[in-house]
Amino acid sequence: MGKRILLLGISFLFLCSTGFAANDIPVGSINDLTGATSDVGKDAALGIKEAVQYVNDHGGINGKKIQLRLFDYGYRVPEAITLYKRLKNQYKIKMLLQWGTGDTEALSPTVNKDRMPTISDSFSGHLCDPKKTPYNFVYSTDYSTNARACLTVWFEEIWKKSDKWKKAREEGKKPKLVCFYMFSSPYASAPIKAIKDHAKLLGIEVGNDQDVSLLALDAKSQVLAAKKEGPTVIWHGNTTMSVATAIRDSAAVELGADHIVNNWGFDQNLRRMTGPTGEGVIGAAASAFFGDDVPYMKEVMEYAKKVNPGEPTEKRDIRTPQAWLKVAMASGALKVADKKGKLDGPSIKAVLESFKDWSPFDTPGALGRPPYTITATDHRPSPVSLIYWIKGGKIQLLKKMDMQRAFPKEWPTWLGW
Questions:
Q1: Rounded-to-integer distance, Cα 254 and Cα 341, Å
Q2: Which of these, 353, 297, 352, 306, lies nearest to 329 by C-alpha position?
Q3: Could you tell me which of 98, 144, 220, 237 has the fewest CB atoms within 10 Å of its CB?
Q4: Torsion angles phi and psi, residue 398, rounded to 5
């Protein structure tokens, strides 16, 4: 499997780097096809390639094609730094599409110095404060807002209403949160401060964190340690494979707690890998799921078959429509900047910061996303978190949680967490 993914990475570079005119627009993409987050990274990379081809097939950037340069960095920060230098100096990219939190945050001072507009698959709240990271952008609700939203929805819809916790409520017990995540992972640890702050706001007790590897195949020791504290809800901050391991092991030792999951750990693969033990799991999502009945999903599915016919569509996941959102945001900004004749970093940045009630592909509700508003003082694109759960063996939308509306006083103070 590893060799197959590596070959895919090589083919991405070849297929995305040929057949372009001199005036076409180079865009760099750093992706994880072979590293610790490749369980979700491969589908995302496929989606980027498909979305770019769609844009190029439908007029491109005012008649110019996007010249995509996509590389696998294996989730290694030093490799990402090396690749960025190559993309900037050799390929003269106009925009960078990044992947992980560690590499995006490590490169942030450099891209800001270079005035290189960057859109990342890391939704770290640390990347959303333009006073600190002026050239970093994200295409979905940030991790910290998602974590707060997941906990809020669980508290309001499950803890307060479900029969499961009725006796505990009647006895006056407080709910308790325990966080499962890889301590050394910048991605997994990014929203921990925020979710603990939010637990305090909601009156939820917080237990001791459990260190679970992104590559964990066994989490029983962590689950048993958590069980001693009697948690009612577990926050999972890792990616799908690790989260599935922890949920199955929680069922095996009868932990009894509910589970809420960050967006990179919640997908159709989680549902498949957890089976009946995943019933009731709640998770944040960046978009609608592959195949959902929402605007622009038809195009996503069509190009999945057209560009990558060897990939079974039944195994495609939410990471594909997420990638389309990323490309929609990039191409939308490039079109406006190019039309103004200013295809440089500051001009592209200014366009992104002018997005107000903007919809991907100029289509309201495209791929399930609420509209984006980005300003020069706040790069959080939306306060609305899409919260799904596994119900009856299927992933279903539970609630669109508007955290700005629910917490208007606190919302401005959460910028940059």
A1: 62
A2: 352
A3: 220
A4: -95, -50
Alpha carbon distance 345, 104 (integer Å): 17
pLDDT tens readout for residues 223-267: 999 999 999 999 999 999 999 999 999 999 999 999 999 999 999
Separation of alpha carbons 289 and 396, rounded Å? 9
What digits encode the pLDDT tens for the residues 52-92? 999 999 999 999 999 999 999 999 999 999 999 999 999 99
From residue 52, give the alpha-carbon distance in Å to each of 107, 150, 241, 303, 344: 24, 32, 28, 10, 20
Two tokens, residue 123 = 């939704």
Per the document, the length of the chain is 417
User: What are the structural domains of the chain?
Assistant: 2-141+291-382 (3.40.50.2300), 143-285+385-414 (3.40.50.2300)
Distance in angstroms (rounded) separating the CA atoms of residues 365 and 68: 26
Tokens 């917490």: give the residue.
Answer: 407
Nearest to 212 by CA among 240, 177, 187, 236: 236
Number of Cβ within 10 Å of residue 8's Cβ equals 18
Contact at 8 Å (CB) between 345 and 116?
yes
pTM of the predicted structure, to 2 decimals: 0.93
For the chain, report the end-to-end CA distance as a whole number of angstroms: 37
Phi, psi of 363 (to 5 degrees): -125, 105
Neighbouring residues of 304: CB distance < 8 A, sequence distance ≥ 6: 46, 47, 50, 290, 311, 313, 316, 320
Strand partners, 384: 402
